[in-house]
Write a structure and sequence with these properties.
The protein has helices at about 5-20, 35-40, 75-85, 95-100, 105, 120-125, 165-175, 185-195, 205-210, 240-255, 255-265; strands at about 50-55, 65, 70, 90-95, 110-115, 125-130, 135-145, 160, 180-185, 200-205, 215-230, 230-235. It is α/β, with parallel strands linked by helices and about 270 residues long. The chain folds into 2 domains: about 5-135 and about 230-265, D-Maltodextrin-Binding Protein, domain 2 (3-Layer(aba) Sandwich); about 135-225, Periplasmic binding protein-like II (D-Maltodextrin-Binding Protein, domain 2). α3 (about 75-85) packs across α10. The termini are close together.
Length: about 270
């Protein structure tokens, strides 16, 4: 789906695979590890027999709705993880700010969050993270005819960011003279730049890349931030669930399923 940027995203994949060592699983419950399937029965899940996932949708290519079904890189991984644990998958669409703060998980609305959540020390104080499963960059999206070429050109410009994200934090720290306009999700951000209400968007590179495919917008600058995504769970009492998810992630890497899913979104 982002085939125009194959080389860049393949490089991101290589970094992810090198830095992220995770948990076990497979394409169906019958082939998952016996320990994972058995452990699922002892997990304190919101709904028995179901892994309930909260995500801020849409945020393509990580989570979006297609033909009446939630899909995307995160969602496909979650589906495989649930299957490997012998569980059904249920998905709830929630706001990102409440998810990354831990409020949604703390309220018992879901078992796990899968929403391109970058692992940060601040979030780790309130959340339990799985092992990293994706390496990302920040980026600046601008109209094709924009004179903005780098983050240094954002002074005095209106820049759209998503509230509660590391992109918003990065913009506040590294573009202090820009006028930051916060939006609840990428959908509102993209509509704003299309309407000319903001001059640029600063957010995760893969999401901004998706907005370049019609030729009206381009990436002004990629911003290396050494960010990694992890799946999130409640801070206390989720140790068994974290271990089970990590076990499934490891198995998905070992049997090639992770790479197949990755390539379906980030390569030819």
């Amino acid at each position: 789906m982002l085939s125009k940027n194959t080389a860049l995203l393949a490089a991101l994949a290589a970094g992810t695979l090198a830095l992220s060592a995770c948990g076990g699983g497979s394409d169906d419950a019958g082939t998952g590890s016996g320990s994972a399937s058995a452990a699922a029965g002892g997990l304190d899940l919101v709904a028995e027999g179901t892994l309930t996932v909260c995500s801020d949708i849409p945020y393509p290519p990580f989570e979006f709705e297609e033909n009446g079904e939630y899909t995307g890189f995160d969602m496909d991984l979650m589906r495989e993880i649930a299957t490997g644990m012998g569980l059904e998958l249920a998905v709830q669409d929630v706001g990102f700010d409440g998810l990354q703060s831990g409020a949604v998980l703390g309220a018992g609305q879901c078992d796990i969050g899968a929403s391109a959540v970058a692992i940060t020390p601040e979030r780790e104080a309130n959340l339990a993270f799985s092992d990293p499963y994706y390496d990302s960059l920040q980026s600046i999206l601008v109209p094709e005819d924009s004179d903005i070429a780098s983050i240094d050109d954002l002074a005095g410009k209106k820049v759209g960011v998503q509230q509660g994200t590391t992109g918003a934090d990065y913009a506040a720290e590294n573009a202090p003279e820009a006028e930051l306009v916060q939006y609840p999700s990428d959908a509102e951000m993209y509509a704003a730049i299309q309407a000319g209400n903001v001059d640029a968007l600063l957010q995760d590179l893969p999401v901004n890349l998706g907005h370049t495919e019609d030729g009206a917008f381009t990436i002004a600058e990629e911003l290396p931030t050494d960010e990694q995504y992890g799946f999130i769970m409640v801070k206390d009492g989720s140790e068994d669930l974290v271990a089970a998810v990590n076990e499934q992630l490891t198995a998905l890497r070992d049997d090639g399923t992770y790479q197949d899913i990755y390539d379906s979104y980030f390569a030819e």
